[in-house]
From TrEMBL:
The protein, known as: Chitin-binding type-2 domain-containing protein
Naturally occurring in which organism (per UniProt): Dreissena polymorpha (Zebra mussel)
Pfam families the UniProt entry points to: CBM_14
Record's GO cellular component terms: extracellular region
TM region positions: none
Keywords: Signal
One function term, GO molecular function aspect: chitin binding
Amino acid sequence: MPYEYTCISVFLSVAVLIRAAFAVSLQCNTNGDYQIIPKRDCKGFYICNWGSPVEMPPCPAGTRFSATVKACVHEGSDLDDCIPDSEVTTTGPLSVEERCDMFGGIIDHPTECQAYYNCSVRYQDVPRLLEQHMVECPYPKLFNADSEQCEHFENVTCGSRQEFKDACDYRLNKCVAAHCIPCNVRLGNCVGKPDGPSPHEAKLWSPYYVVCYKERAVEHNTCPPDAGGRTQIFHPVLNQCVSE
């Protein structure tokens, strides 16, 4: 028997329960079907039994797991169809849904630095302005593709992904309903402004102002009353709170 098929005999009792057209998915289903889920590094696989994943022994040295034949095969052979997760990109032939089905895990958004895809997130009703599996970091955080986490924007290198500085460029801050208060009224904009207190452009000559840091509105503040208890407003020229 050729080496490529030795793993099939080992797991024959499981393989016969799997339909030939079965689509490998990230999560075990709960309908009682067995599933084989390839590992993202191509070095082995999991078997699902009634919704619970069980990690199987890794493939021998010099082999990788094939999702097609569902066995460990010689690396580089004609049967070696596994693509390590680090080599797959969303700009390649695989869609996000296909990547989630095959590998699961976290996928960085190809063009936006504040967004990413989490294959374990599946919306019954996809939120407006998002996509299936898409998650957005809270402003002003960005998604770090190395750590696969939302982090402080100073700690993230976006590369070719667009880095939004205005909170209103974040998808979840945009209006999706008819009676929504416009984002530029709710949130200040610091793009092109120096660090420190700055007027809220939609609320000039009011107590409201923003604090800018590296062109991000990192704080939204209100001027406190003065020593005499009188209301103060933020002066858009002096960039400070003054008594009315």
